[in-house]
Specification:
By secondary structure, the chain is of the alpha/beta class. 33% of the residues lie in helices and 18% in strands. It has one domain: Spore Coat Polysaccharide Biosynthesis Protein SpsA, Chain A, CATH 3.90.550.10. The chain is built from eight helices and nine strands. It has a nine-stranded mixed beta sheet, with helices on both faces. Strand 1, helix 1 and strand 2 form a beta-alpha-beta unit. It starts with a strand and ends in a 10-residue tail after the last strand.
Length: 269
């Protein structure tokens, strides 16, 4: 593994926010003199996201971008990004403005200092600032976190957070099956089964509502419950994922844009 932070960014219909979040991600300093690679997986967006990605690739050589042939969900996009990453550490970054890359330093610190195998950035731990969002959405997050804690024995305050950072060598050994938002409890359950050392740190949060493009819904909550219960009893961490060959890549000046063949995976939606 190189001295690199791999930033894993699943994208679906984010033409309005993508350029701003990419610029923030690439501008923010990170600890340990790490260089950054930004891996963008476009999950068959229907708006101008693909055009925005091409323009970004032309401007930023740190970007490596991949296209899903059909929309599969956040989990499938993260799975693809994990396959492609080359860094020593990895962090998941949504393609909107809810999570602030300025928190990278606090999230990555336990990893860089060798204290943790994985770090969760909590929206509900003590922090400087958060946007007040829908109360019932928060209750749903807390319920899923408590259910996950009960099944895994961890003591998280925010299992559903986007900001999860990992030792990349560990993350690459964890088989990921969930195609949609079930990826969050699945990763958590499998970290617990591996007896990984997990830290949690407070982060800021600027949540958006559905009118602003928020995508997760009640069906994803039901799917998360099923995923938590499933991986409380099912241990598939020794099962090998077969990686299918990918199509030829083509280069846009600076970054690289690839096409993806179908990936194996179970849809928990």
């Amino acid at each position: 593994m190189t001295n690199t932070l791999s930033i894993l960014m699943p994208v679906y219909n984010e033409q309005c926010y993508l350029t701003r979040i990419v610029e923030r991600v690439l501008a923010v300093p990170v600890p340990g003199d790490l260089r950054k690679e930004l891996i963008i997986v476009n999950d068959a967006s229907k708006d101008r996201t693909a055009e925005v990605i091409r323009d970004l690739c032309a401007s930023y050589p740190e970007i490596r971008a991949f296209n899903q042939p059909v929309n599969k969900g956040k989990g499938a996009a993260i799975r693809r990004a994990v396959q492609e990453m080359t860094g020593q550490y990895a962090i998941i970054q949504d393609a909107d403005l809810e999570y602030d890359p300025n928190d990278y330093a606090v999230v990555l610190k336990p990893l860089v200092e060798g204290l943790a195998d994985a770090v969760y950035g909590s929206r509900f731990a003590t922090r400087e600032m958060r946007r007040i969002v829908h109360y019932h959405h928060k209750l749903g997050n807390l319920f899923l976190t408590h259910l996950s804690n009960f099944m895994t024995g961890l003591d998280l305050t925010d299992m559903e957070t986007c900001y999860k950072a990992f030792r990349a060598d560990l993350l690459k050994t964890i088989p990921l099956r969930s195609n949609r938002f079930g990826i969050e409890p699945e990763i958590t359950a499998k970290l617990a089964r591996r007896r990984a050392v997990v830290y949690e740190v407070p982060i800021s949060y600027h949540g958006r509502d559905y009118a602003e493009g928020k995508k997760i819904g009640w069906r994803d909550g039901v799917s998360a419950i099923w995923t938590i219960l499933k991986y409380a009893f099912v241990d598939d961490c020794d099962t090998r994922i077969v990686e299918l060959p990918e199509n030829d890549a083509f280069r846009v000046s600076g970054g690289t844009l690839h096409s993806e063949t179908a990936l194996a995976g179970e849809d928990n939606a």
